[in-house]
Amino acid sequence: MTPTPLDPMDLAGIDDLLSDEEKAVRGTVRTFLDRRVEPFVADWFERGEVDDVRGLTQELGALGLLGMHLEGYGCAGMSAVDYGLACLELEATDSGIRSLVSVQGSLAMFAIHRWGTEEHKQRWLPLMATGEAIGCFGLTEPDHGSDPASMRTRARRDGDDWVLDGSKMWITNGSIADVAVVWANAGEEHGGIRGFVVPTDTAGFSAPEIKHKLSLRASVTSELVLDGVRLPAEAVFPEVRGLKGPLSCLSEARYGIVWGSLGAARSSLDTARRYSIEREQFGRPLAGFQLTQQKLADMALELVKGQLLALHLGRRKDAGTLRPEQVSLGKLNNIREAIEICRTSRTILGANGISLEYPVIRHMNNLESVLTYEGTVEMHTLVVGQAMTGQQAFR
Hints:
- With 395 residues, this protein is of the alpha+beta class.
- The chain has 11 helices and 9 strands.
- The protein has helices spanning 20-36, 41-47, 53-62, 80-93, 95-115, 118-130, 244-278, 290-319, 324-349, 360-370, 377-389, and strands at residues 135-138, 154-158, 161-172, 179-185, 193-199, 205-206, 221-231, 280-281, 284-285.
- Helix 4 runs antiparallel to helix 5 (95-115), helix 7 (244-278) packs parallel to helix 9 and helix 9 runs antiparallel to helix 10 (360-370).
- It is globular, with a radius of gyration of 21 Å.
């Protein structure tokens, strides 16, 4: 029997663990990105602006990628592993494109799907699944990121209405969103932290775009300002109270990062591998030097381990046995190793590594944001530490 040729980017043969359907999903996403995004994304990053972002969102919706792991309401109802593979391919193109998809599906749509009323679901989810409506998720505040329980955004009752005042910061999709899921403190008498579905054309709502970023430049990032935003009684999520609501959404988004960060790592590693074979120094290819091969081997090893961990967590999610602590374990490991792969890949490219002619510096800069959003390394370390010891060390 003739052995299958070894794929240098799949040294462990992880593809053998995927079904034909899962490979088909991955291939469909890759084909779309190669045509629609790859030729333009370096320019978008350099300009800090995505051309026709609404059109792109609708194309992503037509492909079934928006809320793809949710059931009903026009969503594709695909598996967690399918979703993870899509996130990997999206982030192999650019973290900002993966963020667009994951904030739409795993934060805004998931929040409405899991906690909203039937009216919320019927009104918003079909439009969001097609990309006709864009959503954002307002939790982080200017002074409160890792400690959302201390949020200052307030919701008060005024007759039958709710009135929201406050601000949110670093909100993906904010200034292009049609609907925002906003978390606010309603006071103990009304259940503490509550979630609200806020149409962005509501009086008092504004979303100034954040400029001067050196990371996630191919992504819309905004502040949300809520100045006496008046909402009807039915705008609130009726049952969920406290941090359970937003944390359940964050766990969904973090799962996508477990996979997505590996896409940036894979792209950088493959770029470095190809470059090392083509680039000559001292009369032979860079790939022929032991120190270069050590870098490539170490990076490949960490990529393989991250892929196996992501796939294992995906299978657990599909089986209904995935715990938030396990998502933290995956996010902590995979983003930390992914950013190190990007940095090491940059060294193999030398000065060329800082050029947008290659994707490495773009991935590296993007992952500086992914490293700290949806939970910093420190916070996920303490989640894992608490799971191991039973001792809470956050304060």
